[in-house]
Amino acid sequence: GDFGTSFVTRQPAIEVIAERLPNTLILMLTAEVLIIGASLVIGIVSAIRQYSMLDNILTTFSFIMFSVPIFLMAYILMFIFAIRFREWGLPYFPISGMFDPIEGRTASQVIWHMVLPVLSISLISIAGYSRYVRSNMLEVIHSDYIRTARSKGISERRTLFVHAFKNASLPLVTLIGLDLPLLIGGAVVTETIFAWPGMGRLFIDHLNRSDFPVLMGLLMLISVAVVVFQLLTDLTYTLLDPRIRFA
User: Fold this and answer.
1) Rounded-to-5 percentages of helix, strand, coil across the chain
2) Which residue, 189, 245, 162, 185, is CA-closest to 74?
């Protein structure tokens, strides 16, 4: 666990990483909650109203969002919600840092500065995740056991959210389990563009300075997180699908 001393700050590498980890967790956990919540709502609504006008609109939105590179998404949001909003006299969002140095690091300042980075990370993932949810919900709701549940008089809400959703959510659990370790590593592009002092920006800064102790610590942290979250993903499978547990 001793990765040595940073060549840049002359601090233990693990301390340098620990200073930035909370900043990344604030940003990434907020983004992940938004991604999961929005993608579930969009995916389920699209599946229930397959081929409707709403489904077509959501599908078009998803394809457009998923096709936009994250750096372009960040610049578009900055242009609209920071530059244009300021020109129009509307409340505009800040584009760099975690808080205003004059105001200090308060909860409201962190939340206000976090809006654009979170949206940059979330919009593309929501577009991709919602398509997985829609596809799997469509496959499940046409299954025999769902027709049986309906024929027994079980309410449509219970049929969808208790019987169908658990099986349809397995692929989403896989995606989340793969994404979470990368979230700990930080969103390199987003944190760099918005000058967010997290793990992603730390990686870029110390990579440019060839600070190998800090880089080794970051890569080891991500590697351990991959193993841990894959184990948690497998355990989650057994909770959602009894067939896996009994096998």
Assistant:
1) 75, 0, 20
2) 189
Q: Are 26 and 39 in contact (CB under 8 A)?
A: no
Q: Say whether pLDDT at 211 is over 60.
A: yes
**Rounded to whole angstroms, how far apart are CA atoms 134 and 132?**
6
What whole-number distance in Å separates Cα of residue 137 and Cα of residue 186?
Answer: 31
- Here the tokens at position 122 are 């979330």
Tell me, what's the pLDDT at 213? 93
Integer angstrom CA distances of residue 93 from 98, 112, 121, 125, 194: 12, 7, 16, 22, 11
Closest to 133 in 3D by CA, of 209, 21, 25, 38: 38
Q: Amino acid identity of 182?
A: L
What is the C-alpha radius of gyration for the chain, rounded to an integer number of angstroms? 21
**Cα separations in angstroms, 189 against 80, 109, 204:** 19, 22, 9
Contact 163, 150 (CB under 8 A): no
Mean pLDDT of 220-238: 87
4 burial (CB, 10 Å; 0-12 / 13-18 / 19+) is middle
Six token digits for residue 44: 């389920």
The whole-model pTM stands at 0.86
Token pair in block for residue 25: 């967790």
Max intra-chain CA distance, the chain = 69
Residue 100, pLDDT above cutoff 70? yes
Cβ contacts of residue 20 below 8 Å, gap of 6+? 186, 197, 198, 199, 201, 202
Residue 247 has pLDDT above 70, yes or no: no
* 222 token code pair: 């991500």
